[in-house]
Structures are given as structure tokens and as C-alpha cells.
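sry for the spam today, last one i promise. C-alpha cells for design, 346 residues
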């Protein structure tokens, strides 16, 4: 399918640079199964969901994956992209042409990285002089939150982003981008969902930097999806399968939890325990096996995430919904507003 199909024009002023406070006061566009759009807020979720719905959250935790260092006299901005082992990472580097194999980038007197090689896509693979827990400690000391490029910040970012760009239930460190749909949830919203009897479970998918990479090919068949590591426990698989047998709806919070569920499901919709990498790429024509409803943010034009929601609800429905959102001044992307999407009735 031609990637141009998934392009749309977005006024720059609708890109959110700050989150709404409190988080659950963000606007929510409810896209119904007949394609109609209804305005709400995230705080209305306890009213919009059914009491027997099962919510699936991604509890990955974003690490301070953006580093600022020096290679000689040259300033280097490096963002961790994908972990190779305890000390080696694939990274994205601004002006990567400045770096050669064997160069050392110094972040502090006792924290540095050596360039091992470069990939065909232009990423830089480095080996840090620290590994495992020591590397994570160094990142927490000198790293900053890896905000996407469309959120404008001065070098080093803001202290508030350490909390703003993290879900309240983040648990397992490893993501270099936030599962942004989850940023809307507050303890108060959880309490209201609990009061209605809406159950929730957690899976883990460590969101990779590929989330922000543009699709550079003309046809979706030619796009190579990035791989991300995920875990879905046997206990959670049992709860999901029980809910499906009881004909309860499975509602994924975010595209990341959806991708992990679909990776773990067999052709009959039975979810198996999962621990490994997934590079599932969902485009229109895909048959969803495990997910009934999706809660998600507004995504970038031409992105793999917009392709995914078009596969879920239909290209025409999602394009019309996005045009409605633009006309009604919804806020877009990571710190923006959200959608609750019910797929077309079968």
C-alpha cells in the first residue's frame, strides 16, 4: 500500500509541547463503531468503558536516554535507540558524520563511549565504559529524558519532563520513548475505574527509538519495522484469555500494548506467554486477533502508528476523525489529547 495514503496536513500550533494538568483532563475523541465522533475528556473513561472491560497497560519505564558529550572540541548529542548487550547500544547522533570508528565521546570524566561502527541507516553503535546497573546509574546521573523532536526544549530539557514523560505506573526500565497513551492516567482516574469494577493488567514492551523514525519508502511492503523487547507473563495471558472466553472486551492502552498482544496471540485469538522481540508491523488488511477497543494518542502523519490505527478502524474513518480533531483544535502527539477507538461492527 502506498505510504502517501497515510499523509495528512497538521497545523504546527496543534502540536502539544506541554501536558495538560491534571493529566486526565486532556480531551478525548470517542470514535464509535459507526465512525461518528463524540467529544469527551480522558476523565470520562469510567463512563465510556463497560464494567467488565479489561484494560491492558504497558508498564515500561523510560530511561534518561539522551546524552550530551564531547568528542575533542565537538559537541555531541546522542540518544540511545536499542540495547545490544549490557554495555553496547545502537544510538542516534546529531551530525553523526563527525564521528569515526574508534572515536571516544566523553560525557563526564569517568563516563564515556567508544564508537564501534555505523549502521546502513546512519545509526551509531557505541560501547560504554560502564555496563548493566553501573551504566543505568550513570544515565540517571547525567542523562535527560529522550523527548521526541517535535517537543521543543533547550539543551538538557526541563526537570519537569522527568515526571511528565513517565506514566504513573512505570515499573520496568528499558524504554527510550514513553508509551504516551498511558501518560493520561492519574491515581484518581484509576480509583474511578476501580469503583466501576474495570479490571486492569500490565504487560511490558520497551518502546524503542524507532517510534519516531519516519517511513522513508513509497510502499508499506518495503518498510522494515524496528524490533522491541516485550514480556507478557503467563498470569496476564490467563487473565486475557479468561476475559475473552467470558466475551468481555479487551481494551489496550496505547499502540505498544496492542502490538505486544497481537504478537502473542495465535490465529484463534488465544494469547500465549511472551518474552522476546517483536517487529510486528500492522497496516490496513491486518486481522486483529486479541484486541477489541483501543485507547491511543493522535499520531504523526505518515507514521507506522497512524497506519496501525487506520488498520484498526479503517482509513476513511481515521482520516475523517483526524480532520474533525484538527477542526476542533485537539492537541496532537506525545503530550497531546487522546482517542478511544471502537472498530467497525463486524
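last one done:
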Amino acid at each position: 500500500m502506498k505510504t502517501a495514503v497515510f499523509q495528512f496536513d497538521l497545523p504546527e500550533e496543534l502540536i502539544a509541547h506541554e501536558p495538560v494538568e491534571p493529566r486526565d483532563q486532556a480531551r478525548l475523541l470517542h470514535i464509535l463503531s459507526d465512525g461518528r465522533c463524540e467529544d469527551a475528556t480522558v476523565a470520562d473513561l469510567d463512563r465510556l468503558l463497560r464494567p467488565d472491560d479489561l484494560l491492558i497497560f504497558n508498564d515500561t519505564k523510560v530511561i534518561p536516554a539522551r546524552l550530551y558529550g564531547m568528542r575533542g572540541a565537538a559537541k555531541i548529542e546522542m540518544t540511545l535507540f536499542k540495547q545490544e548487550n549490557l554495555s553496547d547500544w545502537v544510538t542516534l547522533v546529531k551530525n553523526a558524520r563527525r564521528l569515526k570508528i574508534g572515536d571516544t565521546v566523553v560525557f563526564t570524566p569517568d563516563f564515556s563511549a567508544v564508537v564501534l561502527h555505523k549502521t546502513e541507516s546512519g545509526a551509531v553503535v557505541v560501547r560504554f565504559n560502564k555496563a548493566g546497573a553501573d551504566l543505568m546509574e550513570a544515565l540517571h546521573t547525567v542523562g535527560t529524558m529522550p523527548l521526541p523532536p517535535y517537543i521543543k526544549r533547550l539543551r538538557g530539557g526541563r526537570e519537569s519532563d522527568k515526571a511528565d514523560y513517565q506514566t504513573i505506573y512505570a515499573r520496568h526500565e528499558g524504554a527510550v520513548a514513553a508509551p504516551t497513551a498511558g501518560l493520561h492516567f492519574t491515581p484518581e482516574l484509576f480509583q474511578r475505574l476501580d469503583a466501576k469494577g474495570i479490571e486492569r493488567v500490565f504487560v511490558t514492551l520497551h518502546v524503542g527509538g524507532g517510534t519516531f523514525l519516519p517511513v522513508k519508502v513509497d510502499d508499506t511492503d518495503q518498510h522494515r519495522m524496528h524490533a522491541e523487547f516485550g514480556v507478557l507473563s503467563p498470569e496476564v495471558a490467563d487473565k486475557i484469555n479468561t476475559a475473552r472466553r467470558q466475551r468481555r472486551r479487551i481494551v489496550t492502552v496505547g499502540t505498544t500494548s496492542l502490538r505486544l498482544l497481537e504478537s502473542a496471540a495465535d490465529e484463534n485469538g488465544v494469547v500465549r506467554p511472551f518474552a522476546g522481540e517483536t517487529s510486528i508491523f500492522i497496516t490496513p488488511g491486518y486481522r486483529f486477533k486479541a484486541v477489541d477497543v483501543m485507547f491511543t494518542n493522535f499520531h504523526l502523519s505518515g507514521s507506522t502508528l497512524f497506519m496501525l490505527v487506520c488498520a484498526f478502524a479503517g482509513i476513511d474513518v481515521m482520516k475523517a476523525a483526524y480532520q474533525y480533531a484538527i477542526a476542533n483544535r485537539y492537541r496532537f502527539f506525545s503530550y497531546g489529547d487522546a482517542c478511544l477507538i471502537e472498530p467497525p461492527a463486524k
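The chain has two domains: 3-62+168-341, 66-143. ok im logging off now
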